[in-house]
Predict the structure of Argininosuccinate synthase.
Amino acid sequence: MSSSIHFPPCTVVLAYSGGLDTSCILVWLKEEGYDVITYLANIGQVEDFDAAKKKAESLGAKKVFIEDLRAEFVEEFIWPSVQASAIYEDRYLLGTSVARPCIARRQIQIARQEGAQYVSHGATGKGNDQIRFELTCYALYPEVQIIAPWRIPEFYNRFVGRKDLMEYAEKHGIPVPVTPKAPWSMDANLMHISYESGILENPKSHAPADLYLMTKNPEDAPNSPDVLEIEFKKGVPIKVTHVKEGKSKDTPLDIFSYLNEMGGRHGVGRIDIVENRFIGMKSRGIYETPGGTILYHAHLDIETFTMDREVRRIKQGLGVKFAEMLYNGFWYSPECEFVRHCIDKSQESVEGKVQLSVFKGQVYILGRESPKSLYNEELVSMDVQGDYDPCDASGFIKINAVRFVRLSLPGQLPASPGI
Amino acid sequence: MSSSIHFPPCTVVLAYSGGLDTSCILVWLKEEGYDVITYLANIGQVEDFDAAKKKAESLGAKKVFIEDLRAEFVEEFIWPSVQASAIYEDRYLLGTSVARPCIARRQIQIARQEGAQYVSHGATGKGNDQIRFELTCYALYPEVQIIAPWRIPEFYNRFVGRKDLMEYAEKHGIPVPVTPKAPWSMDANLMHISYESGILENPKSHAPADLYLMTKNPEDAPNSPDVLEIEFKKGVPIKVTHVKEGKSKDTPLDIFSYLNEMGGRHGVGRIDIVENRFIGMKSRGIYETPGGTILYHAHLDIETFTMDREVRRIKQGLGVKFAEMLYNGFWYSPECEFVRHCIDKSQESVEGKVQLSVFKGQVYILGRESPKSLYNEELVSMDVQGDYDPCDASGFIKINAVRFVRLSLPGQLPASPGI
Amino acid sequence: MSSSIHFPPCTVVLAYSGGLDTSCILVWLKEEGYDVITYLANIGQVEDFDAAKKKAESLGAKKVFIEDLRAEFVEEFIWPSVQASAIYEDRYLLGTSVARPCIARRQIQIARQEGAQYVSHGATGKGNDQIRFELTCYALYPEVQIIAPWRIPEFYNRFVGRKDLMEYAEKHGIPVPVTPKAPWSMDANLMHISYESGILENPKSHAPADLYLMTKNPEDAPNSPDVLEIEFKKGVPIKVTHVKEGKSKDTPLDIFSYLNEMGGRHGVGRIDIVENRFIGMKSRGIYETPGGTILYHAHLDIETFTMDREVRRIKQGLGVKFAEMLYNGFWYSPECEFVRHCIDKSQESVEGKVQLSVFKGQVYILGRESPKSLYNEELVSMDVQGDYDPCDASGFIKINAVRFVRLSLPGQLPASPGI
Amino acid sequence: MSSSIHFPPCTVVLAYSGGLDTSCILVWLKEEGYDVITYLANIGQVEDFDAAKKKAESLGAKKVFIEDLRAEFVEEFIWPSVQASAIYEDRYLLGTSVARPCIARRQIQIARQEGAQYVSHGATGKGNDQIRFELTCYALYPEVQIIAPWRIPEFYNRFVGRKDLMEYAEKHGIPVPVTPKAPWSMDANLMHISYESGILENPKSHAPADLYLMTKNPEDAPNSPDVLEIEFKKGVPIKVTHVKEGKSKDTPLDIFSYLNEMGGRHGVGRIDIVENRFIGMKSRGIYETPGGTILYHAHLDIETFTMDREVRRIKQGLGVKFAEMLYNGFWYSPECEFVRHCIDKSQESVEGKVQLSVFKGQVYILGRESPKSLYNEELVSMDVQGDYDPCDASGFIKINAVRFVRLSLPGQLPASPGI
């Protein structure tokens, strides 16, 4: 692409954050001869959207789209992740990953609607987000051309450090941030805030106490728990009730926002991990996912209560795969569509109510009930024999041991010390 | 077996707890004509072992074995579970399951050494423990005969309720417990205490606050965290240090006991779950696993830090299988031996130090370091380009999207709403 | 149950084959006080159904059901297995396993309709079939009582060998077979014939050449191949055409029967294996599955042609699980219903035509075409560059190698000899 | 790199085949200023190695390496694949894939020994081989620079078709092939020959009968089988015997060559498939793998005979993963080293003898025996009850059905038609 000016100018839809980086990219794209449409998705981050709009216009954006995607983000992206118990490498609840296909989908819709053949973003060349954005773009708009300035030598060689961006901004009338940048980068949305880079790159250093914006420090959290009841249907929450206050929420966005509030108040959902990027390197990330953490635990509980053991075992394997696809950016892939379909099927009977408390960073499951429960109180009871014949267990055990017989001949004994 | 008196009397090794049930079984076995050897394993439960010994002798046990298995329980059973990140159905750390093969192994050793062809236990006919005990017995001593009174009609029809046991006890001079039985049953060892049955059988009822014996109620726990550093080698802890106090432990039993103390003090490791028994029914269990929970988190952290991504993915799948085997009682099976070997191999480079804090029921990872780290601070840095060429990412993404091309023809577009 | 005579007599539905064993069981059940309804399923085995009917009536069956299940066997049981590429332990196409739930389902329907609370079968106590029958019964009719004489001591201790059965038969007017029994047992249906036991129990002995009834000895098969074209839709065959003769079949039963004829003529689908029974022992089995083998290969071909790589990878894993469930008797289990649903979903685009030849025991795929093909001739062509940019591959490879970098430091080199 | 001449000239080790393509690359690299060392691996392909040597020298190669890798190819690469039952997408025995790391490893050894920082190959930009070569190179020699001319625009734009190569060859004194090129490309080694491209790119076209070089057309193969006995130890063949002729082979290379001869004579191991490349596209390939196919079947048989069922189930999953790694080029990756270690462990008891016949394209297993057999003839016998108590099976089945009970309440019945 480089320095060639296009006639008539090509249109590019730029994922615009209002920050220094994407403001510079906006101007740079114009310099490169593009008509630039900016697009800023509201996925629940704290942002002055009006200011961002004005800023984009003042920098010469041909059109400015500010899109409120919060409801569809919860319903179409977070909810399937809850159903899947999606967790990456046993710890990360995928708050950033799950937002990317939601954001990129609308970007592509705008590009198609505006007749733009180009899209652009400010994601770096070492991260996961570039992949998540672009795989979504290619899947939904195969002919699209993607401009990723942080992978274009003439861009990244020109803007080696923040100082270069600042100079460029000043020269081109881009408002320069007055507050100093935090010594890390962050990404926020309704589901979580992630923190990485800068001083966090040393995996041994502890995160500073004032880092977290979404959750209270557990040490400063209330000294008594809040008890919530979450009602599920088909594996997604349909209602949350504060047991004492009687207050309840019942739309997806309200439910999730309320769980964020409750989780945030009690410091729930903070983790500090090293994870494996799709690109092959390990990185250190700190995440706070208050509402998502509560839902993860509550869903797990109602699922185990209502789902057959062996179905769940298969579904668990599919969930692990789903989490990898989501992390790696393959939401809009044939395999992810397939797996989502299967997981959705598995959730048909996942319904009922879970009571839990949130307190000092922790979620405690307290009890559950369900019209679809597979829990059979009489069958399991120690006090009631019921239909169950204990003698059957003898046969069951003996048949399970048949395989061992031949294995116990001399010389084949398990080599454990002491035997 | 039933009412026939054997001449000369056969010898049975009874897993004896000192409680009402196994005391009655002891006497009943004698009535049935057996010579009874009692065996009580010390795996870290709170118990008056001397009193139990005397009681068994007074009830006519031919021999009494009290065996301190704590060190081997930690080294040979808990440590491999830590390496495997063994967790059943995403939540249960398997504290009961992992003790069973340890206990049964020694029981079999005693049976062989004493020339006994029979072993007996007091596990119920609906539970997992009968399976765990007996599969171990059959694997290590295929010719053994197992007497499980709670599955023998003439026994369980005679002792339908606790009242029957009490009457039998009184009649046979078995000391009857003076304190009333808790309205639930519990199983304790070094790794955890489990609570189930009785009033806990209603899955909706909250557990009473005074249930827990191993961990403090988080609400009553100290208001400031303790910070620990755990050092790992080959995937197992070799040292734990209290960072502020400078105190440290470095033998397996001491390390684990100290982690129990720290975790217990801060209320770490309580869960309330419904789980799927091997026998096919769902049951509700409440567990407290203070030290095990700390180790689970610390090990996960150092493992991800030092293990290749794809190796870990395979190891994770093996760990899930290992947890199922362990839960179902297959520790001494060919497949479990195989999986333990593979997991052990995967842990060769899992070494380094993890810093963490325990506070109000929660474990927080703070930082980690390792001579075997695969984390490359320069490679991942946002500020340093290093050897990494961002342009490569473009090719990587495009090739990953090749599969989508054909899928995007008309009629094959993902059917997500809004597109 | 045993010797007690029931008043009024209970009704039992007996799966009756017309042979010596189940004829004796019929009479024995009557002796035990049952009203016996016999049920014989036509699932494609060679059998004189009229003679069997008369025999059952003459032996005192209260009612006799002869049910032609061939069409539903193909459509509802074989077709899903084809979709799943169901193969047990990499070799066995599950011809016996897949028939069992089909047979037992009708037996249960008859039992419910006739108000019978008992069902009975002549399967042995060491095999898989008892499990497959009974799990189906319990799943579809949980209150059912199952009478499995070969697991009832008073039956199996009375009929220790074939001689005992013969004597009993003579005594009770049961017609005794005049031809000597083959020195092995066999099970036949539309999908396959299996041979086991007797002289086949020695795993080293070669199977006699005259064993096979469904397929020609490849040495005696025609010296030129037959070329067939099979058309699939949603993963199941909808038409088979003999390319030279122009002859074609297009109903499930006709298609499968014709493939059996063609495969049989050319000796296709013979295997001699040792397999692992669910009950824990290894057994030796010899199978001939002519039509099923052709379909297995043809379906595999059209599936790979039309299914996305990653979807297929997941589906392959589900297929392995499905085969295990099928083998173990869990067709009517929640997990098998779930997996069938998922596999069915994966087959939506599996359509097109496969040409193949059958010759001397072998199936050769010759070519394939499909309107839903994901094969892109231009993309893959060595002569056309198309949209594909070879430079992208460089980035793809380099990013895939990022993980190796840190691993190549001194001391971490792969320890392969010579490097 | 392009047109810059390096002083002093850099050295590149070129994987040289002696054909037109790599001869042109040799000369082109010299033009580009490199000192070129050619390297030709003998992995069992039919080739005039002397002529290739002379040709390379005459074209200006600074040094010429002809390396006989056949023995290490069999022992270090084919044998582990046999142990793993490595098969890609259920059909392809990976004959090309398994040769690549073997070839590239030596190339890297030569590069290191000769102080060359560059390696080059003639693999195309759309295929798998480029990845397999290069991942091996990066893993074993991370600092290496790879020159892949078919991915360098100035090369591939200059040589668009074969005509361009011919002209270049004539101009630079490169001997031009006199026989016309086959209308497909092939790759041959000891394990197999693959055919693809050209007229084979149409997936519907049948392969011409004269394509195959390694196997006889089954129609022309002998009319009577050869019977072989293969002896295994630790999962690899240690001896093959022609049962009638008494002839035997017992070194890896001899064993494998002899199996190729036998399989080739009988037309064993031909497949025609569409497969999924790592690069994301589907391609059509035709393969003949005579010896490898025999070994695949024989190993499967002895493995099932000697390996515990559940161990094998886990090993099977690892084998599927291994096959994918192998296909995708990850032989020298941490995960593949790990999986090979695990699979190797699983093979410890895989020993014994398998008798089989090869005939008209097919391999028939006839019988097997082993000192490590887990097959228990008495246990499985229909005529002997042995230790096995059939009553145990009743309990086993009932406990397995416990999960179904709750599922059979009204409204939860399986929705299969007819029930």
Observations:
- The first strand of chain D starts at residue 11 and ends at 15.
- The two ends of chain D are 72 Å apart (CA to CA).
- Chain D touches chain C through 113 residues (CB under 8 Å).
- Residues 155 and 221 of chain D are 45 Å apart (CA to CA).
